[in-house]
Amino acid sequence: MNIYLQPTEFFDFNKKPVSRKAIEITNSLTTDKEKAIALFYWVRDEIKYNMLTYVPNVRANFRASVTLRRMNGFCVSKSILLSSFARAIGIPARIHLIDLINHLISQKVIDFMGTKVMYVHGYSEFYLNDKWVKLTPSFDPKTAIKGKFLPMVEFDGENDAVFPKYDNKGNQFGEYLADRGVHADLPLEDIDKIFEEKYPSYANYKQGGHFKQIKEKTLTYKK
């Protein structure tokens, strides 16, 4: 269990801004359950969602300290920050990687990715009350409302908090595909290889081409 309490290159809560923020968020709370809930909602709501920073060959994009400084990120970087906060206050935490289809994303995003599958989606896992609990802090309220990614993911400190199978209108929402395992630190080189294999625009970019961008208000954060 000790491995899930250590700082790493990406879970860099040994950087003072990260540890200070974790303590600030939880300072008035007593139990790990209360602290876990507070950390989840802070990262979910305060770190704005921006899918365009998910570029595996830019290592800084994945560090907790960088995500905190920028105040925006994507599923994996937000989850790394959340798990780093947890480790900073003594709660064992890790990242779980999977492949996912979000059936509510726009055709524009599907065209941008070249597939409807979101490869290597990430969420946090906290060890609370003798079990691992899943936490998905991806979409802040503004993004969730704009994209109609509703209901929002909520966390009660005991049960898994992941994208539901269906939205508020009964439409299919989250479909979980391949499980890529749990990790004490991020296997970034593996993610880079998967992106190069699965996403045509990223493969072209790695070969010296221009990385195709997208203007999609529901999934790209602008100040």
Structural notes for this entry:
- The chain has helices at about 15-25, 30-45, 65-70, 75-90, 105-115, 140-145, 190-200, 200-205, and strands at about 50, 70-75, 95-100, 115-130, 130-135, 175-185.
- It is built from eight helices and six strands.
- The longest helix is centred in the N-terminal third of the chain and has 15 residues, at about 30-45.
- The chain is of the alpha+beta class and about 220 residues long.
- The protein starts with 15 loop residues before the first helix and ends in a 17-residue tail after the last helix.
- Helices cover about 35% and strands about 20% of the residues.
- The strands form two sheets. Strands 5-4-3-6 form a four-stranded antiparallel beta sheet. Strands 1-2 form a two-stranded parallel ribbon.
- It has a single domain (about 1-205), classed as Roll (C8orf32 fold).
Quaternary class? single chain
- Which CATH class? Alpha Beta
What is the total tally of β strands?
6
Fraction in beta strands: 15-25%
The largest beta-sheet arranges its strands as: 5-4-3-6
Topology readout:
Elements: H1 16-26, H2 32-46, E1 48-49, H3 64-70, E2 72-73, H4 75-88, E3 93-102, H5 107-113, E4 117-128, E5 131-135, H6 141-147, E6 174-183, H7 188-198, H8 200-206
Parallel strand pairs: 1-2
Antiparallel strand pairs: 3-4, 3-6, 4-5
What is this structure, in a nutshell?
This protein has helices spanning 16-26, 32-46, 64-70, 75-88, 107-113, 141-147, 188-198, 200-206; strands at 48-49, 72-73, 93-102, 117-128, 131-135, 174-183.
